[in-house]
Amino acid sequence: MNHIFPTYQQYPMEIVSGHDWHLTDNNGQTYLDFTSGIGVCSFGYSNTWIEQRVINQLGKIWHTSNLYPSQLQDEVASLLCPKDMLAFFCNSGTEANEAAFKLARKYTGKQQVLAFKNGFHGRTFGSMSLTGNPSIQTGYTPLVPGVQFADYNDDQAIKQINENLAAVILEVIQGEGGVYAGDPDWLHAVSQKCQQEGVLLIVDEVQTGIGRTGTKFAYEQFEMKPDIITSAKALGNGLPIGAMIGKKELATAFGPGAHGTTFGGNKLALAAAKAVLEQLTPTFLATVQQKSQVVFKEITTKLTPLEAVASVSGQGLMIGIHLKDQVKVADVIAKLQAAGLLTLPANHNTLRLLPPLVMSEADLLLGIDKIAIILEKMGSKVHSEAE
Ligand SMILES: *Cc1c(COP(=O)(O)O)cnc(C)c1O
């Protein structure tokens, strides 16, 4: 890759084709996919319903400016948004969070936003400034001012929520941070305090949303009342699309000229999103929950007892296997690749699993078995270094 900035430490192979939840690289090796990109291709790599919708749209028109209304945008918004909420379409997760940050400031007339350590909201300046991970911010100062951080799942954070804040932003499960789930009581308390103090609650569902945790949005499983929800990753199953979803009354601050985007809401990505959301039915979500139960049962039996494993976390098909320090997640990922399984890292030496939601139960269990075999072998390291 002589012509590309080396911003990614890349694996040695290129993925050249995919079918269902199987991928093939440029050497002809095939893999079972426990990544979905990074939580993107939840309906796999050959979903004909999505493919046909995109191909049909490709034959009609690809792009119109947002100066013209789009029936497709309205249809996708109606499928996507909870009751009494509106959507702003953009192209990525970071853009969705930028829109949320801007809207929160403009609507409230306040500047301060509370975010959480170990959180991740994206790489553009606003979203990066909300990201509680110094390694992502190093070298880019000055960041956007007015952002405070608190510890996730810490009661002290509740006290920091007061009427001087425009918004609080959080993930219900910190994905990049290592698949750390919010405590139900704590999430409820954050939401309640935001309401009491008139602070907008922004829930970043970029990774947790669109069925990943077994419901359309993860916050639905908690007693939370978000004012703004952000979505991206799986929304277009691989075509770039993001959405900032906010309560209707916020529209007074997002009138004509307040925000904009050339490509956001483009018809190809929207055709894909519509086809994704049409398939995200209660019946489909029930299959995700069912698969999740089977997978977590298998993980508890086969992975939790292993020497290499410190703990396991997650919800739905968003899973974190927290490895002991002696067992490096990068080594585990490389060994699993050689064994024909693609997996992801996350912070704090976490092996992150985000399989396509459509994967068969049999292949989900096969993947867990592959991980068990590799981790079993690597567990000897924990032993030898402990002695
Ligand atoms: C991936 C991610 C983002 C950023 O999305 P991009 O499309 O890469 O800009 C934001 N928030 C969360 C929680 C994410 O997982």
UniProtKB/TrEMBL annotation:
<comment type="similarity">
    <text>Belongs to the class-III pyridoxal-phosphate-dependent aminotransferase family.</text>
</comment>
<dbReference type="InterPro" id="IPR005814">
    <property type="entry name" value="Aminotrans_3"/>
</dbReference>
<keyword id="KW-0808">Transferase</keyword>
<dbReference type="Pfam" id="PF00202">
    <property type="entry name" value="Aminotran_3"/>
</dbReference>
<comment type="pathway">
    <text>Amino-acid biosynthesis.</text>
</comment>
<keyword id="KW-0663">Pyridoxal phosphate</keyword>
<dbReference type="InterPro" id="IPR015424">
    <property type="entry name" value="PyrdxlP-dep_Trfase"/>
</dbReference>
<keyword id="KW-0032">Aminotransferase</keyword>
<dbReference type="InterPro" id="IPR050103">
    <property type="entry name" value="Class-III_PLP-dep_AT"/>
</dbReference>
<dbReference type="GO" id="GO:0008483">
    <property type="term" value="F:transaminase activity"/>
</dbReference>
<dbReference type="InterPro" id="IPR004636">
    <property type="entry name" value="AcOrn/SuccOrn_fam"/>
</dbReference>
<protein>
    <submittedName>
        <fullName>Acetylornithine aminotransferase</fullName>
    </submittedName>
</protein>
<keyword id="KW-0028">Amino-acid biosynthesis</keyword>
<dbReference type="InterPro" id="IPR015421">
    <property type="entry name" value="PyrdxlP-dep_Trfase_major"/>
</dbReference>
<dbReference type="InterPro" id="IPR049704">
    <property type="entry name" value="Aminotrans_3_PPA_site"/>
</dbReference>
<dbReference type="InterPro" id="IPR015422">
    <property type="entry name" value="PyrdxlP-dep_Trfase_small"/>
</dbReference>
